[in-house]
Amino acid sequence: MKSHSIIEIKQVSYRYEKDTVLENINLAIPNGSFLAIVGPNGSGKSTLLKLILGLLKPQKGEIHLFGQEMSKFKDWQQIGYVSQKANSFNTGFPATVFEVVSSGLTKKLGLFRFFKKEDSQKVYDALESVGMRKFSNRNIGELSGGQQQRVFIARALVSEPRLLILDEPTVGVDAENVNAFYQMLADLNKKRGITLLLVTHDVGTISDKVTHVACLNKHLHFHGDTREFEKHQSEGMSELYGTDVQLISHQHDHGGVFK
To answer: What is the pLDDT of residues 168-210, one digit of tens each?
Structure first.
């Protein structure tokens, strides 16, 4: 039977010298889902992302991407990635928003191939999807941290990936704009059908946006939909993370992605 999971992680472990950071991780991420990975500092979140992106190789277990074992997977254009350091660059860099986003097509088109009209339209469409089209001619350094992060998400989207991975994307986003930022991600998931994998600490803020939550702290302690996660709030969960892990109660639209 063909798997409907975009990512399948099976019995994966990883260690740095004597320190085990991930142990026996099993995680399946179905097509069309919006998964938030939460956990304390040092819980292995960044290592897990590096394994999924092929930057590290599992020391035990295996990872499948789009139904292929990772060592055989070649179509990396299907995966977009935005790091938490994406907007940590020289704000005086002389590039417009359009130019920054269009650079996301370089690998797909080739470094010296001229843009066609349809290529420019892809850039505008990507900017439109993150609410930044009207800033296309603005210098990237003139934007706020949150606006810059939206531009880098557009850059990741312009090559039309099926999976978008974001590592703490609200770093640099003003607190009053965080909810709107997450709503933009939820719209990408629902309207464009992009599978999203998000590492975040803003569990309460995003609880009505994601379809699933995974709690990581060396082991995968929980993986389920947001309703299940709300039911599992307990002192045990708080002790695991060293702080209260609570979700704000929301009305959820699960849309039948997971049943």
So the answer is: 888 778 877 888 899 999 999 998 899 999 998 777 777 788 9
CA distance 13 to 235: 27
The tally of domains found in the chain comes to 1
User: To which residue do tokens 């470094």 refer?
Assistant: 111
**pLDDT under 50 in the chain at which residues?**
1-2, 111-112, 235, 242-259
Going by C-alpha positions, the residue among 162, 252, 167 that lies closest to residue 212 is 252
Domain containing residue 227: 5-89+162-241
Evaluate whether residue 255 is within a structural domain.
no
The whole-angstrom separation of Cα 259 and Cα 243 is 31
Beta-carbon neighbour count of residue 58 at 10 Å?
A: 17
* Alpha carbon 256 to chain centroid, angstroms: 21
Q: What CA–CA distances, in Å, run from 42 to 46, 141, 241?
A: 8, 32, 11
CA nearest to 199, candidates 237, 233, 170: 170
